[in-house]
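Quiz preparation item.
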């Protein structure tokens, strides 16, 4: 298949649950002009705990570099699990550009903010405060979650996010998802963009909220999903299936599925 753009996120290389075989198969079939890795491609935290790197991972990296050498522009957006790459932001490796966030202009001229999304963990909790402090402090507050986690790492604690916290509380899961989406949508609107493309919560989704489109790539730990843009600028969500006979042909995210699989119930348990 030929696309103008492909976005994938949350591959989590280094965890045993990364669906690398499927991803390789997908990338062999799919050609595009621009490929975005929307964060958590490499799971630095997991690798630090226990090194796990298979020959297949090398094939995947080689595949990406080969694409980058040929006709595909590859952009690597950092997430919370591959924060260790932040020191190299702005640099290019084998033509792969490393950024924290970027803007994608679609074929129809629409502008999309592309970022992993961990920056928005728990932002809605500040909402009341936000109304008072206004937009000047808005960006600062968004950084708080990142700072908190940096401090935690210095002290030897793992990443803390609302996502992990609410795994214990399934009822709160949907609230977390809607808060996350709402935060991103608000920020996107303030940025003057037409939409946002993110990952992080391992929950593939396309949602239009008023004037803003929210797109979540999903992940390659459980869902094996990607966002793709055609040459007219239409963006859709696709689910890769290497063994179609084992999967039922249900809509991508049905209301029923939303209830059955609240956020956080991923195979790897990593967000
Ligand atoms: Mn993440």
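Solution:
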């Amino acid at each position: 298949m030929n696309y103008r753009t492909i976005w994938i996120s949350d591959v989590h290389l280094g965890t045993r649950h990364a669906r690398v075989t499927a991803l390789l198969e997908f990338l062999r079939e799919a050609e595009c002009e621009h490929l975005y890795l929307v964060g958590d491609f490499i799971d630095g935290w997991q690798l630090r705990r226990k090194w796990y790197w298979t020959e297949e991972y090398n094939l995947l990296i080689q595949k990406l570099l080969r694409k980058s050498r040929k006709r595909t522009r590859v952009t690597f957006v950092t997430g919370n699990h591959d924060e260790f790459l932040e020191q190299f932001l702005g640099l290019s490796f084998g033509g792969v550009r490393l950024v924290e966030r970027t803007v994608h202009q679609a074929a129809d001229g629409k502008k999309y903010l592309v970022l992993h999304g961990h920056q928005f963990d728990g932002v809605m909790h500040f909402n009341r405060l936000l109304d008072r402090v206004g937009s000047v402090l808005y960006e600062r507050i968004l950084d708080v979650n990142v700072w908190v986690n940096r401090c935690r790492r210095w002290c030897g604690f793992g990443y803390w996010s609302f996502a992990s916290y609410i795994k214990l509380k399934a009822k709160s899961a949907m609230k977390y998802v809607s808060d996350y989406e709402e935060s991103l949508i608000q920020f996107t609107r303030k940025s003057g963009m037409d939409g946002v493309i993110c990952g992080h919560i391992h929950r593939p989704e396309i949602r239009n909220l008023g004037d803003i489109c929210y797109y979540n790539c999903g992940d390659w730990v459980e869902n094996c999903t990607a966002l793709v843009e055609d040459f007219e600028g239409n963006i859709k969500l696709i689910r890769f299936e290497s063994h179609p006979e084992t999967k039922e042909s249900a809509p991508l995210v049905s209301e029923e599925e939303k209830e059955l699989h609240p956020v956080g119930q991923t195979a790897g348990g990593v967000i």
